[in-house]
């Protein structure tokens, strides 16, 4: 018969979806679980990071600057945008080869 502690060590940690599901189930009858669920839903998530940047941690000024830059990019004609992105990607490849 195996010791239960040994089984826990070999199991993988629960996924975010499993954690959230468990919190939702408990939040129905437990106010503390509801509070934890709210905090869980507000946490920065890896998938919300763009290029390794946590948007939630950026200042209002930084977010406004990012937004203005994105608007300028979106206004570029398709041909110019493709050329710009292509040159950026080439620059990245050159930097990674050095």
Rounded average pLDDT: 80
Gyration radius, to the nearest Å?
Answer: 22 Å
Which percent range fits the helix content? Answer: 55-70%
Strand content: under 5%
Uncertain segments: none
Number of contiguous helices: 5
* General shape: elongated
Give the domain tally. Answer: 2
Q: If you had to describe this structure to a student in words, what would you say it looks like?
A:
The chain folds into two domains: 1-49, no CATH class; 57-98. It has helices spanning 4-10, 16-27, 31-42, 60-75, 78-97. The chain is mainly alpha-helical. The chain starts with a helix and ends with a helix. The protein is built from five helices and no strands.
Descriptive tags:
single chain, mainly alpha, 2 domains, 5 helices
Topology, please?
Blueprint: H1 4-10, H2 16-27, H3 31-42, H4 60-75, H5 78-97
Helix pairs in contact: 2-3
Short précis:
The protein folds into 2 domains: 49 residues, no CATH class; 42 residues. Helix 2 runs antiparallel to helix 3.
């Amino acid at each position: 018969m195996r010791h239960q502690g040994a089984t826990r060590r070999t199991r993988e940690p629960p996924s975010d979806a499993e954690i959230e599901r468990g919190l939702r189930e408990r939040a129905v009858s437990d106010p503390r679980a509801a509070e934890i669920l709210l905090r869980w839903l507000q946490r920065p998530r890896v998938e919300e990071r763009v290029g390794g940047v946590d948007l939630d941690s950026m200042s209002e000024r930084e977010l406004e600057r990012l937004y203005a830059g994105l608007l300028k990019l979106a206004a570029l004609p398709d041909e110019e945008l493709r050329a710009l992105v292509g040159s950026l990607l080439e620059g990245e490849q050159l930097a990674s080869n050095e």
